[in-house]
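Service request form, structural biology core

Requester: graduate student, group of Dr. S.
Request type: structure prediction, single chain
Budget code: on file
Notes: please return the result as structure tokens.

Sequence provided:
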Amino acid sequence: MLYRLSELFPFAPWSVFRYVTFRSAGAAVTALLLSMLLGPRLIAWLSDLKFRQDYRPKDVKEGQTDSSAAAADTAKRGTPTMGGILIVLALDLSVLLWAQWNPLVLLTALTTIVLAGLGFYDDWLKVTKQDAEGARSRVKLCTQFLLAAFIAVYLWRLPSTTALVSEIQVPFLKAPLLVGLPILGGLLTVFTIVGSSNAVNLTDGMDGLAIGCTLICTLVFLVMTYIAGNAVFAKYLLVPHVTGASELTVVCAALIGACLGFLWFNCHPAEVFMGDTGSLAIGGLLGLMAVLIHQPFVLFIAGGVFVAEAVSVMLQVGWFKITKRKYGQGRRIFLMSPLHHHFRKKGLAESKIVARFYIVAILCAVVALSTLKVR
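Core staff response, request fulfilled:
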């Protein structure tokens, strides 16, 4: 919106809105202020509607944890959920105000809204039925796969973005690893978006954990989207140049501001949980960002915490099923999954676990940024 004003009035002070850096800063501040302003009102509204987590979480059901962990989770019952509404609202309003809309930005808006709607439906079932199961896994996965498949086909059919799907770009290499493989690239696109969405969802199990790690990971893509959208920087650093990707920097900045604002209320002890409304949306958005700048594998590095959380669940479930079939009784690799609950069962305080995961996330972010020069 403000960019259009700068085109109508191409003179000071409106001309400043033509700079991506200025609009990114504006988007971050706007999203932060919106979150801080609307946060208390949203929390009160959710409480009045009784959108609270009074059900027993999945990870404290029979056979998955002990009474001590269950007692820790019991203390969180009654905390309002669906706080992801705040993140999505602050993000979308900021992007609407500060970004120059192009196909890439429209895809981020579509992804955020669809996955937030899916998460809202899941949270709605949980709070109305007071059951941690929520929507069926089949429904959630089908929706995520259909959305990701649509994005993959759209990018492949759009002439300016065909290479994002037909070429496979790998970190630390100057040139694409594989070329002319749209089916493989499409599968990678789908896997990145769906996997990221669910990985962030699995990480959302402690106060401030998922939102803080998302904030750190988004900082990486703030830098990488700016470079990918700048032809000079992209050529110098030997990374793919994507036309219009600079506007994704505004989206990343808005997400950073929204994350900071939500973290204000979600840090321990949390006043509100983001729920699947937030975790599915921001996870999918991170995956899409990686795809749109032709760096899906960088997400696996920058989002190392999310990857570890998702892998811990897959290993735990897979090993449990294998050993149950073989020995008649399931066995576990971890004391509890996802991974952050394993450390909680080992006796670490929740705040210490979250802080240490932040440290790991920062290290992963540094390694991800190093791929810009190590080629």
